[in-house]
C-alpha cells in the first residue's frame, strides 16, 4: 500500500463521511422531535435527486439551482406529512406504526418515480463531473467537494438554528419535555410539524448533493436506508452532532478498510459498528441521555 | 435409453419425469379419440414458453417480437420444407416451475413439432431439462451464464456469438498481437460479483495473463455497490496500462466517472454492457472517447442475413431491432437450417436426434455471423468489439466488419 493511496483514500473517506452526515441529519432529527422512525427519508433523498435531474434536463441549468424549488417544497411536504399523517398515530405505538406508515410512503415514492421516469438509470450530465483539484498528489473531485460544502453549510445552519433562534429553543424544548414546553406556551404540534419539515428540507439538499455524483434509479433508496439508520444509532438517536461525527468516522473507516479488504467486506463496517454500539452502548456513542442531545 | 444418460438429473426431476410419464400416457390415451393437435402436413408448429409477464417481461417481449418476425419472414418466403410455420406461445410469468410445466404441455399435449427456448438462464435450464427428457432439440436465445453449459445437456445450443467468458476474445487476440514495445504490460480489473459480468472480465484476464500482461488490481464488488471512488483510487494508484470493467450499467458508469475524477489516463478502457446502452452518452457526456465494449449484436454488422433481418424488421415495426429480437431471430435461423438440412420436423425422437447431430457438426450463417457449437452447446464465435469514436459507438473488431480503426492508445478522457 502506497502513501499516496492512503492519502487519496483518506480524502475520499472524509468527503464520503460528509455526504453521509448530510443524508443522516434529517433522519436523526425526526426521531429526536417525534420518536418517529422515518423509513421514507432515503426515498425522499432519491425523489430530490430525480427532481434535480429533471430540472437540469428540462432547463439546462445547474442542478444546484433546483434547491430553490425543492427545499421549500420539501419543507412544506414535511409539515403536511407530520400534521396530516404522523400526528394521528397513537402515541403508545407511535415508533412502531411510524415504521409501517413511512415504509408505505417510501413504496409510493418509489412506484411514482418508476411510473413517471421509468426504471432507466439516470445521471445528471455535468461539464465538471470528472473535474478535480490536486492536493499533494491526491485528487479531490469538484462534485464531491460541492457535496461536502453543501453538507457543511446545511449542518452548520441547522446547528445554529437549533441553538440560537427562538424557534430552535422551542424545538429543543419540545424534544426534551413536551408537556413542560406546552405549559410555557409553546404550540408543540406546530413546532413538531416544522421540525419534520426541517428534516425533509435536509433531504432535499442531501438528494441534490447525491445526484451530482451518482447514477440514480427508483429503488436506490433501499441501498441507503440501512447505512443511514446505522449512523444515527451509533451517533445516538436524535443527536445531529452525534450523527455527523459517526458519519465521518464510518466514512473514513470504510474508505480505508477498502484498501486491504475490498468492497464487499468494507461495507460491513456499518453493521459491525451497529452491533458493537447495541452491545456496549445502546444509547449511542455521542448522544448521552436523550434529553440532553443538543 | 436417453434418460439414463443424464448425469445431473436430480431426484426432483426424476419425480417430475415419473409424473409426466403418467401424464403422457393419459394424454396419449385421450388423444386417441381426438383429432391430432400437432401440425398436420401443411404446417410446422413450434412450441415456445416466454416470460411475457413478471420479472423478465421486458426482454421476454423482445424475444417474442423476434420470434414472430422470424416466423412471418419464413412464411413470406415459402415456409420450411414447404410447410407454414406456426408459433404456439405460452406465458410462463417468469417462473421456473411454470416454464417446465409449459414445455411439458407443449410437447405432450400439443405435440408440437419443434421447441425453442425462453429468455434467461433461470428459465432456460428447467426448460432445457424437459426438452432433453423427451429427446427434443433445444436451441435457446438467452442463457449465457456458465451454469447452462455445466448441466450436461446434450440437446442444447445457445444461439448467440459467445458465452460470457468469450465476450472479449477478439480484444484479447488484438492486444496480444501488438508488437512487444506497444503491448500493455499491466492491467487492472474491476468486476461485479455476478456470473455474467464477472465472466466477461475474467475471460479477458485469463487470456491476457497467459499472454504475459500482469494483473495489478483485481477488485470484485457486490451488485449493490454505488460508490466507486475507492475502487477507482486503487486502480489509479496502480497506474495500470489498461483497465477492464466487468460491469452492467450503473456500476460501469460510476466507475468511469470516478476514474476520470482521479485523472487516471489508461491506454485502453474496456467495460461490458454499460457503453452500449443508449443512456451511456447522456450520462458521461463528451468524455466517452476511446471507451471499448463487446457487443453480441449490432444492426450495423454487414452479414447479408443481418441486413435482410434489419430491413424486414424495420418495415414491420418502424424501428430497428435490439439484441433480444436478434437473438430470437438467430434461434429461428439455427433451427431452420437444421430442419432444411435433415429434411424433417417431427416430434419423434429419431428426427429430433438427427437435428441435434446435424447442429453438432455444422456451421450456420446467422444475423450474428456464422455460428458453430462445442459438445456442451457453447457457441464458438466471438463478440464484436465496439469503441466510442467521436461521440458514436462503432465496430472496430473483427477487421472485416470494422467501421472505424481501433484507437490505441486511448485519447485522454
UniProtKB/TrEMBL annotation, chain A:
This is Branched-chain amino acid ABC transporter permease. InterPro entries: ABC_transp_permease, BCAA_transport_permease. The keyword Membrane applies. One of its GO terms (biological process) is amino acid transport. One of its GO terms (cellular component) is plasma membrane. One of its GO terms (molecular function) is transmembrane transporter activity. CDD domains: TM_PBP1_LivH_like. It holds the Pfam family BPD_transp_2. Keywords: Amino-acid transport, Cell membrane, Membrane, Transmembrane, Transmembrane helix, Transport. Belongs to the binding-protein-dependent transport system permease family. LivHM subfamily. The chain crosses the membrane at residues 6-29, 36-55, 61-81, 93-116, 136-162, 191-212, 224-250, 262-280. It is a multi-pass membrane protein. It comes from Nocardioides turkmenicus. It is found in: Cell membrane. It comes from the Bacteria.
Amino acid at each position: 500500500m502506497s502513501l499516496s493511496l492512503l492519502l487519496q483514500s483518506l480524502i475520499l473517506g472524509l468527503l464520503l463521511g460528509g455526504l453521509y452526515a448530510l443524508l443522516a441529519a434529517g433522519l436523526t432529527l425526526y426521531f429526536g422531535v417525534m420518536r418517529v422512525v422515518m423509513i421514507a427519508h432515503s426515498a425522499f433523498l432519491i425523489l430530490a435527486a430525480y427532481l434535480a435531474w429533471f430540472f437540469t434536463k428540462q432547463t439546462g441549468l445547474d442542478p444546484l439551482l433546483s434547491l430553490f424549488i425543492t427545499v421549500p417544497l420539501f419543507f412544506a411536504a414535511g409539515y403536511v406529512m407530520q400534521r396530516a399523517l404522523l400526528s394521528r398515530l397513537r402515541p403508545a405505538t407511535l415508533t412502531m406504526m411510524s415504521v409501517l406508515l413511512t415504509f408505505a410512503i417510501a413504496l409510493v415514492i418509489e412506484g411514482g418515480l418508476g411510473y413517471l421516469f421509468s426504471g432507466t438509470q439516470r445521471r445528471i450530465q455535468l461539464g465538471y463531473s470528472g473535474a478535480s483539484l490536486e492536493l499533494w498528489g491526491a485528487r479531490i473531485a469538484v462534485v464531491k467537494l460541492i457535496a461536502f460544502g453543501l453538507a457543511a453549510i446545511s449542518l452548520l445552519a441547522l446547528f445554529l438554528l437549533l441553538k440560537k433562534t427562538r424557534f430552535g429553543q422551542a424545538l429543543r424544548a419540545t424534544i426534551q419535555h413536551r408537556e413542560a414546553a406546552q405549559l410555557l406556551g409553546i404550540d408543540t404540534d406546530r413546532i413538531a410539524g416544522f421540525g419534520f419539515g426541517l428534516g425533509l428540507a435536509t433531504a432535499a439538499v442531501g438528494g441534490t448533493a447525491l445526484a451530482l455524483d451518482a447514477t440514480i434509479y427508483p429503488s436506490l433508496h433501499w441501498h441507503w436506508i440501512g447505512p443511514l439508520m446505522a449512523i444515527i444509532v451509533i451517533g445516538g438517536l436524535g443527536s445531529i452532532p452525534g450523527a455527523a461525527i459517526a458519519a465521518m468516522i464510518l466514512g473514513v473507516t470504510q474508505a480505508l478498510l477498502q484498501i486491504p479488504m475490498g468492497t464487499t467486506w468494507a461495507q460491513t463496517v456499518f453493521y459491525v459498528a451497529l452491533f458493537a454500539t447495541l452491545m456496549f452502548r445502546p444509547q449511542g456513542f455521542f448522544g448521552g441521555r436523550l434529553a440532553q442531545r443538543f | 435409453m436417453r434418460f439414463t444418460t443424464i448425469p445431473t438429473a436430480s431426484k426432483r426431476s426424476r419425480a417430475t419425469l415419473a409424473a409426466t410419464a403418467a401424464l403422457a400416457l393419459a394424454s396419449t390415451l385421450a388423444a386417441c379419440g381426438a383429432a391430432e393437435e400437432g401440425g398436420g402436413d401443411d404446417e410446422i408448429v413450434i412450441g415456445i414458453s416466454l416470460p411475457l409477464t413478471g420479472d423478465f417481461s421486458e426482454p421476454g417481449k423482445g424475444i417474442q417480437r423476434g420470434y414472430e418476425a422470424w416466423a412471418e419472414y419464413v412464411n413470406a418466403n415459402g415456409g420450411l420444407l414447404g410447410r407454414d410455420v406456426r408459433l404456439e406461445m405460452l406465458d410462463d410469468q417468469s417462473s421456473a416451475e411454470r416454464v417446465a410445466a409449459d414445455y411439458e404441455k407443449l410437447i405432450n399435449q400439443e405435440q408440437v413439432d419443434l421447441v425453442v427456448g425462453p429468455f434467461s438462464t433461470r428459465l432456460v435450464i428447467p426448460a432445457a431439462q424437459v426438452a432433453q427428457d423427451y429427446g427434443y432439440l433445444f436451441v435457446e436465445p438467452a442463457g449465457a451464464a456458465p451454469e447452462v453449459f455445466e448441466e450436461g445437456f446434450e440437446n442444447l445450443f445457445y444461439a448467440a456469438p459467445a458465452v460470457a467468458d468469450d465476450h472479449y476474445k477478439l480484444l484479447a487476440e488484438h492486444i496480444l498481437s501488438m508488437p512487444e514495445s506497444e503491448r500493455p504490460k499491466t492491467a487492472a480489473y474491476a468486476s461485479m460479483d455476478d456470473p455474467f459480468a464477472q465472466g466477461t472480465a475474467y475471460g479477458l484476464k485469463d487470456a491476457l495473463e497467459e499472454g504475459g500482461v500482469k494483473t495489478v488490481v483485481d477488485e470484485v464488488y457486490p451488485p449493490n455497490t454505488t460508490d466507486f471512488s475507492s475502487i477507482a483510487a486503487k486502480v489509479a494508484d496502480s497506474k495500470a496500462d489498461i483497465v477492464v470493467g466487468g460491469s452492467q450499467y450503473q456500476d460501469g458508469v460510476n466507475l468511469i466517472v470516478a476514474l476520470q475524477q482521479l485523472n487516471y489516463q489508461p491506454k485502453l478502457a474496456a467495460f461490458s454492457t454499460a457503453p452500449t446502452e443508449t443512456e451511456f452518452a447522456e450520462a458521461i457526456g463528451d468524455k466517452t472517447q476511446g471507451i471499448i465494449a463487446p457487443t453480441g449484436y449490432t444492426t450495423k454488422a454487414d452479414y447479408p442475413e443481418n441486413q435482410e433481418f434489419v430491413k424486414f424488421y424495420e418495415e414491420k415495426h418502424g424501428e430497428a431491432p435490439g439484441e433480444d429480437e436478434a437473438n430470437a431471430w438467430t434461434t429461428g435461423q439455427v433451427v431452420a437450417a437444421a430442419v432444411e438440412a435433415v429434411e424433417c420436423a417431427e416430434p419423434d425422437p429419431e428426427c429430433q436426434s438427427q437435428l441435434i447431430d446435424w447442429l453438432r457438426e455444422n456451421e450456420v450463417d446467422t444475423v450474428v455471423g456464422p455460428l458453430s457449437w462445442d459438445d456442451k452447446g457453447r457457441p464458438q464465435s466471438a463478440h464484436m468489439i465496439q469503441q466510442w469514436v467521436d461521440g458514436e459507438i462503432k465496430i472496430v473488431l473483427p477487421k472485416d466488419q470494422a467501421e472505424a480503426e481501433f484507437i490505441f492508445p486511448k485519447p485522454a478522457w
